[in-house]
Amino acid sequence: MAKNLSNLLQKGNLTPKERYLLIIQNDIERATTGKEPLTKADIEALQNWQAKTSNEAREWNKYNDGWKLSGRAGIDAEFVYAETKAEYYRKNILTAELANYPFYRERLNALQALKKIKVVDIKEAIEITNKQREQKLRNGVSFNYAVYKLALETLKDDYRQDLKTLYDSVEDDNEYLDNEEIIANLFNGKDELTKEAKEKLAELVAERGYNKHTKEYQLFMYFAGIPIMEIAKKWAKEKGIKPSTQDYEWLEKIKGGLKKKGLTREVLDKAKAEQNLTGEFADEEWLLTEKIKEILEQYARDNQTTPQEIIKATCLKWLDEGLLIKDYTPIFNSKQKNTFSGDTKHQHDELFKEWLKAKDKARETLNNLIDKGDLKTADKTGQDKTITGESLYNLKGEFEFVKDFKERVDKYQANLGLVYADDNKERKGENLDRELLIADKDGDGKLSVISMFGMSIKEIEGQFNQQFFTETEKDGETYLEFKSDNIKEVFKTTRQSLIDGYAKLLAFEDIHKKLSKIYEIDLTFLITPKVKQVSEFIDLHNTYLDNALEDTLGFGVGFGLYKKPLKTSENFFIEREKIAPDINIAEDYGKKFYEIFSDEYNY
Asked: Please, which residues bridge with residue 338 across strands?
């Protein structure tokens, strides 16, 4: 602007428009920077100018009238902003409870867990612990699992350590090595899988991600070394499906928070380089990883299919393109020693061969014990038989897995879960997964009123009283509801005020953008910050609501008290990117400015 002012002042013979623009631009410079390019003499000379012709007078009046109308528009925008802000803060008491709802829900979950503790006297406690012990003995141990545990126990130390390097939970979780063995058997000594083997493997991989208890699909699961997450991401990339604009805005906020904590892109890249990772934590890749579950489930709903079917089809396609040959080579066929957790001492294929030898030897040992009568098996349908708990408990010898079994039998496990009556995974058997509270009971067999535990629970419950929100159950889903229609109406009104206020301010911002071209200086400096502020109000509204509805994954999950995400009976989120400038304001002011400026105002 300084250059424009200098050029115009040197010109001398200024038009009325140039004179008026000089005055306006000087005022804006003073308001935005505190500096005043024109001297008092310059301003007086410009303001005291007299029009010599009617054309000059009309030109001066045009820009003067436009400026007065722009001032009125600015005042109207200020009123809109003030009203919107007031409405937003008016619901602060509602918002505060919404923001704290996850905390409330977690604590309520913890209280429910405490209430689940079974109140017993000492006689009942002894009976329950004995019942659990008897049930464990009845359940016994799967023959195949016993083979697995004995094979690990008898494997040479360096090979056992290599298996831990490959999979750190190998001592407790047999699925990884069992699945690697399934893959090896499907190859059946050949270089490639047959069509039938690919179909079978793709089905097994897809099923691996489905949790039958929660009835949810979990993308973080693996089948042997095959990550289901990567299959899902491959599907999304091939479909050209990307996270939404709102997701990218969310990512920018996350990055801003990381920056405040000193976790800059450079720091993350350095950490990545030190771990020899390439591209894994790139912004778009990371965002896709975060949002892929939502994307996959939404696509499945829209196209009347399931995540399992999508994963199966994508896995099958990838198998044709080199999965297990070029990508994620199974250990039976791998000449490598490197793993995510470090290098193994032995090549993976050699390690796998030793593991199979150890399993064969363990199977032979257990079968010999069964043949001699030292171990007994229960009648069992299916491929896997069961070693009876009694025979395993009474077995003489120094097997570590037998010692572990005896310890588990003798130890009461308060949160063991439903103990299965047999191995068909149907929930038969008694519910023994209870912590026991040995305390005085009243005549009805309930916790005594003068119980320290009971009184403490009531005192804590009294501290968690939600004024505005409650939860209701319907058709297996949990809904977050308002406690009254009046509260709901207040919430909806303030939500709508944010939408309306934002739309009006967008219209005023557009008007000032057009005026900026006419007066040749940015006139949005007073409007844009207000638009940004209301935009942040909307984002906070969505954030608090989203947080209130999220999964409860804290205290109580291991006690059968997992709470699914909440739902709402109506959509209370605000889709900010879909809000258009208010048409009434745009047209009303548009007509008035057009009457003043004609085609100079791009109406």
From this structure: 343
- CB atoms under 10 Å from CB of 303, counted, come to 10
How far apart are the C-alpha atoms of 603 and 596, rounded to whole Å?
12
Which residues 6+ apart lie within 8 Å of 2 measured at CB? 37
| Of 522, 503, 501, nearest in space to 512 by CA | 522
* Tokens read off for 489: 């109406």
Tell me how far apart the alpha carbons of residues 598 and 478 are, in angstroms, rounded to a whole number. 58
Question: CA-CA distance, 492 to 571, in Å (whole number)?
Answer: 10
Cα angle: 245, vertex 247, 248; to 5 degrees: 65
Amino acid at site 200:
K
Percent of the chain with pLDDT over 70: 85
Q: How far apart are CA 579 and CA 501, in angstroms?
A: 10
Closest CA to 509 of 530, 496, 524: 524
**What is the pLDDT, as a whole number, of residue 508?**
96
Place of tokens 């708990």: 389
pLDDT digits (tens, 9 = 90+) for 276-309: 444 444 567 777 888 899 899 999 999 999 999 9
Token code pair at residue 552: 């409860």
List all residues 6 or more positions away from 351 whose beta carbon is below 8 Å from its beta carbon: 159, 162, 163, 166, 331, 344
Binning pLDDT at 50, 70 and 90, where does residue 419 land?
very low
Q: Tell which residue, 101, 160, 2, has the closest CA to residue 547.
A: 101
3-state secondary structure of 211: strand
d(CA 312, CA 115): 43
Most confident of 40-54, 179-193, 287-301, 401-415: 179-193
- From residue 209, give the alpha-carbon distance in Å to each of 206, 231, 293, 368: 6, 11, 11, 37
Q: Which two tokens stand for residue 580?
A: 């258009």
Burial code (b: 16+ CB inside 10 Å, e: under 16) for 24-51 equals: bbbebbeeeeeeebbeeebeeebeeeee
CB 592 within 8 A of CB 601: no
What is the reported pLDDT for 459? Answer: 82
522-559 per-position pLDDT tens digit: 899 989 999 999 999 999 999 888 888 875 555 444 44
Closest to 207 measured CA to CA, from 226, 188, 233: 226
pLDDT for 256 equals 57
Closest-CA residue to 588 (of 66, 61, 67, 73): 73
Three-state SS annotation for 408-456: HHHCCCCCCCCCCCCCCCCCCCCCCCCCEEECCECCCCCECCCCHHHHH
| Phi (first) and psi of residue 411, to 5 degrees | -100, 130
The answer on pLDDT for 12 being more than 60 is no
Give every CB contact of residue 245 below 8 A, 6+ residues apart in sequence. 577
The rounded Cα 182 to chain-centroid distance in angstroms is 33
DSSP state of 233: H
Q: DSSP character for 335?
A: -
Neighbours of 9 (CB within 10 A): 17
Which DSSP letter does residue 563 get?
B
What pTM was estimated for this model as a whole? 0.59
| Per-residue confidence (pLDDT) for residue 420, from 0 to 100 | 42
User: Which H or E run includes 118?
Assistant: strand 118-120
